[in-house]
TrEMBL record:
Family according to the record: Belongs to the peptidase U32 family.
Gene Ontology MF, one: peptidase activity
Cited InterPro entries: Peptidase_U32, RNA/ubiquinone_mod_enzymes
Position of the signal peptide: none
Name of the protein: Uncharacterized protein
One Pfam family recorded for the sequence: Peptidase_U32
GO terms of biological process kind: proteolysis
UniProt keyword terms in alphabetical order: Hydrolase, Protease
Lineage: Eukaryota, Metazoa, Ecdysozoa, Arthropoda, Crustacea
């Protein structure tokens, strides 16, 4: 019913195409199932009963490329800037590796570790290697391996000197910590 990257539930129920940015999030709603013969009602309270894992083809991207695919659609609608930045970075590196002939399992493992750091519902590679049963998320929320913690906000940026002034409002920042700066003009910048 709901397949990440190929969902038609929203189109069927609301004439709003999820694949064109108008998803109504049908797979995240509560439903009541009614037995037509007995009238018995069952409330489906499971937040992820129709929620699929995220579509991820980075581990088969060489095969996708060999099949002649030249354009990739990256799912980023409704996602945080750091998610979009991380996915684009990993896929760009993978495509460049395929072109250079250096794409291998070790790189795939590193890209997957990187992708697992941002919000995700687990990954699967869809039906690209043949028909198989969809894989459903085993829980609601993120499966990210890296936790984001709010530490403060940017107060001022001095463009000539390329220096930013920040106000720390929570937690301590230590040398070596990775920080993520997000904003309407910066997008997502990860620094250490």
């Amino acid at each position: 019913m709901a397949v990440s990257g190929k969902c038609y539930l929203s189109l069927h129920s609301h004439n709003s195409s999820a694949n064109r940015g108008a998803c109504k999030q049908n797979c995240r709603k509560k439903y009541t199932v009614i037995d037509q013969e007995s009238g018995f009602e069952m409330e489906i309270d499971n937040e992820y009963i129709m929620s699929p894992k995220d579509l991820c083809t980075i581990d088969i991207l060489d095969q996708v490329s060999d099949a002649g695919i030249k354009v990739l659609k990256i799912e980023g609608r409704g996602r945080a800037p750091e998610y979009v930045a991380k996915v684009i970075r990993c896929y760009r590196d993978a495509i460049d590796s395929i072109t250079a002939g250096t794409y291998d399992k070790d790189k795939v493992i590193e890209w997957m570790k990187d992708l697992e750091k941002v919000y995700n519902r687990g990954f699967w590679n869809g039906y690209y290697l043949g028909q198989k049963l969809g894989e459903w998320s085993k829980g609601s929320g993120s499966h990210a391996t890296q936790k984001k913690v709010y530490i403060g906000k940017g107060v001022h940026y001095f463009p000539k000197a390329s220096i930013g002034e920040f106000k720390l409002e929570a937690f301590d920042l230590k040398v070596g910590d990775t920080i993520l700066i997000t904003g309407p003009t910066t997008g997502a910048q990860e620094l250490q």
